[in-house]
Amino acid sequence: MYKTNSRHDYKKLANKIKEISLNSYPGVDKNHSDVKKLSDMASFLQENIKTINELKDKIIETAKQSPYFDIINSFYDIVEVLTTVLLGDLGDITRFDNHKQLIAFCGLDPTIIQSGKSINVHGTILKRGNKYARWILFNISQMVVKLL
Q1: d(C-alpha 3, C-alpha 17), whole Å
Q2: Same domain, 76 and 139
């Protein structure tokens, strides 16, 4: 908080704010270098967004060639981008002999805590698998839960 002792201090503060505002975006002329820089940055950002969208469309088209794309994408209309990223992250799904191997690859298998005769199989997940696949599956599950 700005402390003042007199009316003169308020005037100094007001003049300082006025001086700073003259150098801010709305207070400068349209030919000022800051306006040009901001315009160039906005154009650069729009070009990057366009490039990202083009690349996203290309990877989706590539993923659609997989026989598993329609199967995964059919679960509650999962977004094509998440399906594509999941397929890309898992690689060849046929290398897994069963669902347990896929679960272990993603790090979703539960910890088993054994102490003497008691065995706790309802522990937390191990998280020692592929963290990206786990993140994708978490987001997909959130979408499914929201749709239900």
Answers
A1: 15
A2: yes
pLDDT per position as a tens digit, 2-22? 555 666 677 888 888 888 877
Query: d(Cα 83, Cα 70) in Å, to the nearest integer?
Result: 9
Chain centroid, CA 72 distance in Å: 20
Give CA angle at 72 (68, 73), nearest 5°. 115
Q: Find the domain containing 104 and state its range.
A: 68-148
Question: Does pTM top 0.70 for this prediction?
Answer: no
Q: What is the mean pLDDT of the chain?
A: 84
Specify whether 37 is located in the same domain as 100: no
Give yes or no for a contact between 105 and 54, defined as CB atoms under 8 angstroms apart: no
Q: Are 130 and 89 in contact (CB under 8 A)?
A: yes
* Spatial separation of the C-alpha atoms in residues 71 and 60, rounded to whole Å: 14
76 lies in the same domain as 136:
yes
Q: For residue 91, is it within any domain?
A: yes
pLDDT tens profile 53-74: 999 999 999 999 999 999 888 8
Say if residue 88 is in the same domain as residue 145.
Answer: yes
For the chain, what is the domain count?
A: 2
Quick one: tokens of 63? 């993923």
